Amino acid sequence: MKKIGFLNFGHWTDSPQSAVRTASDALLQSIDLAVAAEELDADGAYFRVHHFARQLASPFPLLAAIGASTSRIEIGTGVIDMRYENPLYMAEDAGAADLIAGGRLQLGISRGSPEQVIDGWRYFGYEPAEGEDQADMARRHTEVFLGVIEGKGFAQPNPRPMFPNPPGLLRPEPHSPGLRERIWWGAASDATARWTAEKGMHLMSSTLKADETGEPFHVQQRKQIEVFRDAWREAGHEGEPRVSVSRSIMPITTDLDRMYFGREGTSSDQFGQIEPNLRAVFGKTYAAEPEVLVKELAEDEAIAAADTLLLTVPNQLGVDYNAHLLESLLTEVAPALGWR
């Protein structure tokens, strides 16, 4: 059994070929797709965060709106770039959205990926401290955020406050109990997966991973998952950690599917340099008839090792079409693989 959801980057463009022409379209259609996914009995609605791009950015208004429009589905991010975040303000936003959703947030966070502008986090008012690089800054922001959402008071109260205070030190409000146990880290390398486990966060692994062995993408990702789970046990954390992997999976069941994705059936892993010090491997797209997908996906070692699968959706094709793709996966592929 696996939890199955979608991951939406929320692209928009004013091209006549796009069903998502504006930022308003991207946001409102994201809500509609989450509602449709819940009606289809999917398990999760996840959203990517990119700044300075025509994609989804500030996630918490969207997460809160989806929380108010649904009742069961998990609502998450994949991922929030912690280089850009004020940890205390984020704790308030996350707490509020989680309470609106009834404790259904699953927040994926990370150092982030290459962005649209140079050092975009500087425009948001953040600078690495002396001796830090941008990755260190993201982890520092994360450490503060994780500490705050545990809910312990730390701020000295004003002896003459505008409103009465509870006794003791104060914390940002609203606080959502349990949110700390639903934080994920997007890890590209084995070392980061180990750090994720040590910090008691769940593992989120995408369609891109640092190339550390030259092996196929799914093999390297499976080994990363093993590193994470071993480190979790060594750290002595209670409970079972969760692991999600993202995939581009396009079941071809109609002529329209074939027109859009028929040529993707020959897709393969790609290796390339995405940063000066990072050679990466990108996972292939799975596009075929359901019976073919069942055979191909059964050989994906990382999917087998994960408990959660996120389907990356081509959101510019519109809500109805993406709901169709998700339904095809849930009804014609997942049962044959024992995921349902």
Descriptive report:
The protein has 340 residues and is an alpha/beta fold. It has a single domain (3-337), classed as Luciferase-like domain (TIM Barrel, Alpha-Beta Barrel). The protein contains ten helices and twelve strands. The chain has helices at residues 23-39, 60-69, 87-100, 134-149, 190-198, 217-235, 255-261, 290-298, 301-305, 319-333, and strands at 3-8, 44-47, 74-81, 105-110, 183-186, 202-205, 208-210, 243-251, 270-275, 278-282, 285-288, 308-312. The strands form two sheets. It has an eight-stranded parallel beta barrel with strand order 1-2-3-4-5-6-8-12, surrounded by seven helices. It has a three-stranded antiparallel β-sheet with strand order 7-10-9, covered by helices on one side. Helix 1 (23-39) packs parallel to helix 2 (60-69) and helix 3 crosses helix 4. The model has no long low-confidence stretch (mean pLDDT 96). One of its GO terms (molecular function) is oxidoreductase activity. Pfam families: Bac_luciferase (PF00296). This is LLM class flavin-dependent oxidoreductase. It is an enzyme of class 1 (oxidoreductase).
Order of helices and strands: EHEHEHEHEHEEHEHEEEHHEH
- Specify the helix fraction band: 25-40%
CATH class value: Alpha Beta
Shape: globular
Note the total helix count.
10
Mean pLDDT: 96
Question: What is the CATH superfamily classification?
Answer: Luciferase-like domain
Task: Report the strand count.
Answer: 12
Radius of gyration using CA atoms only: 20 Å
CATH-assigned fold name:
TIM Barrel
Strand residues, percent? 15-25%
Low-confidence regions: none
> What's the arrangement of strands in the largest beta sheet?
1-2-3-4-5-6-8-12
For the sheet with most strands, the description reads:
8 strands, parallel, barrel
Distance between the termini: 6 Å
